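User: Batch of two.

Assistant: Item 1 of 2:
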Amino acid sequence: MNSRPLLAAVLVFLSALPLGAAERVALVIGNDAYPDAVDPATGRARPVKLDNCVNDATAVRDMLRDQLGFPAEGIIFGQDLTRTQIYQKLEAFKKAAAGSEMALVFYAGHGMESLDGRENFIIPVDADLVGAGESEALLRGTAVNLTEVLGYVTKATGGPKVVLLDCCRDRPAKRTATGKVAEGGGLAQLPEDQIPADTLILLAAAPNKQASDGRGHGPFTAALLANLPARGQNLLDAFFKVSDAVQEATGKQQIPWLKFDGSGTIFRQSALVTGNAPVAATPAPGMNTAELAARDRQIEELKAQIAKMARESTGRADQAAELAVVKEQLTAIQEQIQSKPAVTMTPSAFPATQPSPLPNQSSPIAGRAEPLAVGAAAPTLKSVDQNGKEVDLGKALSSGTTLVYFYPKADTPGCTTQACNLRDEFEAVKAAGIKVIGVSADTVEAQKKFEEKYSLPFTLLADKDGAVIKAFGVPTIMGTSLASRQSFLVKEGKIVWRELKATPKTQAKDAIAAAKAN
């Protein structure tokens, strides 16, 4: 396989909560059309044009739109961009992603590290590649510092962010006249202070190692396209699968490198594809032998990973946090096996491999195949509010008009936008005769903090066991108990309107319009 002469980088920032149309925003850039680099000493021209970066960017854009729920209008796309155009796209991205729960940036193209190997730069098509390889000033003046890009991401969203770098970068000064690598290679290690909060970074290859350009798509991008749309995996699971696929495709010549800020909990609570798990035709009282065998393999792999991480640890806090995450995953799998008796069933009864329950999370809520339809009777179960008081939904929904809206998690960006929209328009909502009940799988304590922090004037149900979410048939994120963002208008005990992709910024207006129409 041929290697890209410089960086083919991919930056992807994902969040995994189920989002409305305005909540999934992406910036996708692919740069191929670089002019030849001319050696000023010999006058020899070296082609540095890339073959697959625009293909990679186009394919990722299409995957986001067609398979991962990004609206077309939420994807900012560019190819063969100059430095000025890259900054223009970054500004547009920051504006579009403000308050979003998912921010994704994909960059494929050249790049290089600084001469001291401490900083990383993405390269526009109008950059002076030869000069940048010899002069730090020219590099900074013609390229875009990765730290700046990460700064735009930090400002764009307070939600989870994932950074994927598909790179095979070298300083041009380190290359021979034929363009082959003389020494070094790959992406410089990212300093700890360059990784923003709640950000996961996956490099296509280990620091200072090269990544293949492949044919049509590089193996890293090919692995992204093949694995990210799969259901039943949180963010960490998804990117571990990407890593495994790259290693298999390259015979372990290319081994991706994963890094994240914080404990990793936010990534274990997030998924790329939302929706309920398919229900097996024949329910089983415990694990079948095929499932147990798959879990045994997972346990052995995690034990080996823990041992390796322990051997290589230098005592840094981030290493300890990563090790703790893997140990939690191991404990969760072991506890699940201990809680289920082994049973013998045909292999078709369960998938050969299934995602592990997230540590510190409830099992996925099965829910209904479809959310409650218009005309259906509202559920009559009981729950508990943010004050710990029992709420009889059957009684509360039997008279008048009530907006029951479901949201993933208290005090996250989109959920806060939605709640504050209802708060700010609450007088108009009351004037329309609408009561409001918000529902999520948060604890009573979390709902109370949410209410007090934003002065919310309505009821919040702490549906920790998922009973209300299930009763309304609201889908949950695979592997978590987090509810999709859906809204129902109940009048005299009947569903008269529903919004299966509720928009946080217009929740009050949409509910008022529905009440007037019904």
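Item 2 of 2:
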Amino acid sequence: MNLSTLFNDSIAANDIAYNNHQSSNISFREITKSTEKHKWNSLFNRGYSGKVRNATAYELSKNAIFLLAYEGSKELGYIRLIRHAEFAAYGASENIYCVGEAYVKHAYRNNGVLREMLKHVIKHYNVKMIYLEIERAEQYEDYYRSLGFTVGVLTQYINLVYLCQTDLEPYIAAHHNALKNKSELAIAA
């Protein structure tokens, strides 16, 4: 596993051609209807070339924000954000979000749509993490670094990683130390 040793030892992206970025008039609206959330999640599952872990009911619930990207009357794709409150115990904001999924329709790929979606959620939704396969993180390392994701953290799932913004690193370290200490206490008991 390279990823520059997981970004200094520390989704699925569908539109990686960021050097081909074109200016756009992309707008966003929150998806609130359950049927529409399931529709987009299903499109993601069918269109994703990697290994798919179906979103749970919890991940489709109020804990997640679904945003539709559109231009005029054209629906371009969606992005699902998952709230992560566990870092609040270490002084971080309670409203840190992670990109759980991103999907861009085939007709709109390689035009910078994903980049615009990611820039929007980073700016407006306090996105500090992206959840994706290690292979994709390694393959598109420069792309994610260009968006500020410089720290890689392994997950409980074998082939998945969180890529995190640098400013989240102290909270990640504190969280991991607390988990380690809790584990050591449980073993000693």
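The longest helix spans residues 169-188.
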